[in-house]
Design brief:
Length: 266
Amino acid sequence: MAFAEVRQYQPGDDIRSIDWRVTARRQSPHTKLYEEERERPVLLLCDLSPSLFFASIGAYKQVRSAQLAGILSWLALWSGDQVGGIVFNGRELTVQRPARRKKSVLQLLDTLAKLQKKPEAIKTADLQESSLTANLDTALREARRVAHTGSRIFVLSDFLSISTETSRLLGALARHNSVSALRIADPLELHLPESGRFAVASEEGPVWFDAGNPQFQKAWHEKVERHENELAECFRTSGIVPATVMTSDEPAVILQSQLGPRGRIG
């Protein structure tokens, strides 16, 4: 049994559980409550696809995704839970079943480091050949196969590659598990500056755009609005409330909203 909380004494409570220090301080009887400790599988779906190799501020989205996965994996292990992960980068997908061992966390961190590859290291032909086996939808299908009922699942992605199937896959996963979506985004993806010329790296080299061009601004806003609406509908129909992590954010601070008492994964 693990300590849960202290509350005011109620008739029927075991007097042996009275917290005498709190009782003396508050001048009314208070008792300690305990809960049964249970191992729970925690599964981390970590997206390291080429679209996450981007940032206009802070750290690359890939880096934030890996940092979030690393923090969550250690928290889960320290809470006595099993830790596993599905890591994918557009070309490769690695599945690690949950286990309660430090070695499992270290293995997951090693996989995160190995699959963080620069876009130029992932050939276009490889992406086309593997797009059906290493994307978000495939990771969600793998999660349904690997996850035991009652698992705690975190999906770490920028969700730029959602499809018509993503909502159904998320909803099916959430029916028997507790699922959280941590969306990783960059400010430049959502809001363009009103003016200025900017360069964005691509496979063909730098791509320059003029933020002050009205036609470009209009096309950009329409595309962003369309994707935002599709993503909102995806989360709504799947019943999942997402949290957003910006590239400028500190992952540890953002994760506090996802944690329960004493820093445990909620």
